[in-house]
Specification:
- It is a single chain.
- The termini are far apart.
- A 6-stranded mixed beta sheet has the order 1-2-3-5-7-10, sandwiched between helices. Strands 4-6-8-9 form a 4-stranded mixed beta sheet.
- Helix 1 packs parallel to helix 2 and helix 4 packs across helix 5.
- The longest helix has 19 residues.
- It is globular and about 55 Å long.
- Helix content is 45%, strand content 17%.
- The chain has one domain: 2-enoyl-CoA Hydratase, Chain A, domain 1.
- By secondary structure, it is α/β, with parallel strands linked by helices.
Length: 255
């Protein structure tokens, strides 16, 4: 995991890099846990920049190999609970977090970006949750609520139902990212510049603002285990995995 999730601190700024470019930075459980550990205790840094190695992906979701070990509903429920816990830790990080997005930012990667305080993108960024045409699983209530708070329920419905990816220009137009840079090099430079800007501001003001916004999103979400069971234990989910790994279109049956 150490090589797959890199962390370095320079002059008060922490830099987290998903480092599996050969797999489009697909996330393993160990990488999720490593990110949570950094976010839970950022130490002496005043801001965190999160990015992906290479120019093709920020993070292209959870590594499909993690799903192949699922044997029943409890595995699926535990997986979504893990993601909710990791993203919750990231949201509660005591310092500002900045997602610097180049290339694919999908599935779990998009969830991480959405949980950051600020998001900026390279022109080649693509953001979304294409699960309705790939795996046939679902998002947790916490993930849906976070996305709805960012871009509104209608746009969440649009991107989940159509399974399309937003390009960088559209992501900016809907408020998902605040800036679009021409390429990965410009993105990296701007991410560090932005991190240093916010790191120089009153830390308690930023911390209070982060927590106030988190509380506004509401913590009393209805249960979602029935929805997770519905999708993850279905024949369609097994078909989705097989089709994804076999690089073919899935044949959905709704069961």
């Amino acid at each position: 995991m150490q090589d797959e999730l890199l962390y370095a601190a320079r002059d008060g700024i922490g830099f987290v890099t998903f480092n599996r470019p050969q797999a489009r930075n697909a996330l393993t459980f160990a990488m999720y846990e490593g990110l949570a550990a950094i976010a839970a205790d950022p130490g002496a840094v005043r801001a965190l920049v999160i990015t992906g190695a290479g120019e093709k992906a920020f993070a292209a979701g959870t590594d499909i190999g993690q799903f192949r070990a699922f044997r029943g509903a409890e595995d699926a429920i535990a997986y979504e609970a893990r993601l909710d816990r990791v993203l919750g830790v990231l949201e509660r990080c005591t310092v500002p977090t900045i997602a610097a997005i180049a290339g694919a930012c999908t599935g779990g990667g998009a969830g991480i970006a959405a949980a950051c305080d600020l998001r900026i993108a390279a022109a080649n960024a693509r953001f979304g949750f294409p699960i309705a045409r790939t795996l046939g699983n679902c998002l947790s209530m916490a993930n849906v609520a976070r996305l709805a708070a960012l871009i509104g329920p209608a746009r969440v419905t649009d991107i989940l139902f159509t399974a399309r990816l937003l390009d960088a220009a559209e992501a900016r137009s809907v408020g998902l990212v605040s800036e679009v840079l021409p390429d990965a090099a410009a993105l990296a430079g701007r991410a560090e510049e932005l991190a240093r800007l916010v790191a120089g501001h009153a830390p308690l003001t930023l911390r209070a603002t982060k927590e106030a916004l988190r509380r506004l999103r509401g913590q009393n979400l209805p249960p979602d285990e029935d929805l997770i069971r519905l999708c993850y234990t279905s024949a369609d989910f097994r078909e989705g995995m097989a089709a994804f790994l076999g690089k073919r279109a899935p044949a959905w049956r709704g069961v």
